[in-house]
From TrEMBL:
PANTHER family: REGULATORY PROTEIN GNTR HTH (PTHR43537:SF47), TRANSCRIPTIONAL REGULATOR, GNTR FAMILY (PTHR43537). The keyword RNA-binding does not apply. It comes from the Bacteria. Coiled coil: none annotated. The lineage of its organism: Bacteria, Bacillati, Actinomycetota, Actinomycetes, Pseudonocardiales. This is FadR family transcriptional regulator. Residues 9-77 form the HTH gntR-type domain. Pfam families: FCD (PF07729), GntR (PF00392). Keywords: DNA-binding, Transcription, Transcription regulation. It comes from Pseudonocardia xinjiangensis.
Length: 227
């Protein structure tokens, strides 16, 4: 799509609308840095104040995030995701685990029914990467690999609303996985993940749901036991 010069009148509203379209379409992907202010001003044909006002409006809604000395980044790709991000920041690990239980049990079963060949490949790859990261000693790499695996399973549901909800929880999920990892002496032996991958790949919704319950129950027990 790209940016185009806007008409006179409610300039800020038009700029905001263009920015939202670029974000929602993926032209400005999640986590990416948006173009610098001079480039935006030139492309849109408006003043700096209009661009700044539009950026501030989207920062307020949670779609954009300023990083001092670096630039402005895409924080969420929809208002729904932005709202979830804001709420999840104020939640406890146990709260997030409870939400995950509600979402991931049914998502696992749905993924087992709906997964495509491409989903199977993605889940196999993510599961292998997660296993490999267990023995590497790099906690950050393990957390990233674990999250990538769960996102692959959620993606296999083919449900865009669920995918948006889960993506909006990414920060909270990352904190939860990191917390559980710190409490667990042997992440390689943590139950449920390989079983979940196998069940989804085999197209067994009952086994997939059971596997999801297994790893989430184990995580909850670890957190409760640390209190």
């Amino acid at each position: 799509m790209g940016l185009s010069a806007v008409r006179t009148g409610r300039l800020c509203d038009e700029v905001v609308a263009q920015f939202e379209e670029l974000i929602e379409s993926g032209e400005w992907p999640l986590g990416s840095k948006i173009p610098p202010e001079p480039e935006l001003v030139a492309a849109l044909g408006v003043g700096r104040n209009t661009v700044r006002e539009a950026v501030r409006a989207l920062e307020h809604t949670g779609l954009l995030e300023p990083r001092r000395g670096d630039g402005t980044y895409v924080r969420a790709t929809s208002g729904l995701r932005a709202a979830i991000v804001r709420r999840a920041r104020r939640s406890t690990v146990l709260d997030v685990l409870a939400v995950r239980m509600s979402l991931e049990r049914d998502a696992a079963a749905t993924a087992a029914v709906r997964r495509t060949d491409a989903d199977i490949t993605a889940i196999r790859t993510a599961a292998a990467a997660r296993r490999a990261s267990c023995d590497g000693g790099d906690r950050a790499a393990f957390v990233a690999a674990d999250l990538a695996f769960h996102h692959a399973v959620i993606a296999a549901t083919g449900n865009p609303v669920l995918i948006d909800l889960y993506t909006g929880l990414t920060d909270a999920l990352q904190h939860t996985v990191a917390t559980v990892d710190e409490l667990d002496d042997d992440p390689a032996a943590f139950p449920g993940h390989d079983e979940l991958a196998a069940a989804v790949i085999a197209g067994d919704p009952v086994a997939a749901r059971t596997a999801a319950e297994s790893y989430l129950d184990a995580a909850r027990r670890l957190v409760e036991g640390s209190r």
